[in-house]
Design goal:
Layout (H helix, E strand, L loop, with lengths): L2 H9 L18 E2 L5 E5 L4 H6 L6 H13 L5 E5 L6 H5 L7 H18 L3 E5 L1 H6 L9 E5 L2 H6 L5 H16 L1
Helix pairs in contact: 1-5, 3-8
Amino acid sequence: MTLYQQHKRKWANCSRCLLHKQRRRIVLARGTIPCNVAFVGEAPGASEDCLGKPFCGPAGHLLQVVINQSLEGCSYLLTNLVACFPREAKEAGDNEPPDDAIKACAPRLVELIEMAKPGLVVLVGKLARKRIPWECVDERGWCEIIHPAAILRMDLSQRPLAIKRCIATIRGALE
């Protein structure tokens, strides 16, 4: 059994916070372990909750465009601060998972990043930058990009520049 398979088994039935009561599926990670670059977002959305994979909804498709244009020949991993969809927060109009969920999920995230050994951690959105357990980025390079969901909410004329900024930020951090 690989380390990641052990990680998945360990966290498959996590009940460390109340978000586990709302989820359909736990959303751990997708990508390559070990990897060159790890992307850490905020929380799974409705699409991710249904499929059990991070960044598979509309924002994930846009992130994939950014990845394809910025990571030539680099392996990557996608994950979030929390592994469960914060359904009640989203329904209340709050875009952030609760503090207790982020704290409860921190050991999972730290373990995953240590296992993946990325040289660069890309924090996807302001919340990821504000709330990342900093042991995930200690001794690693890191950068922050605009969350793809925020780009999708922008006026159509602003989106290409925002995407270019994300690509340039990642490429710059890799150099």
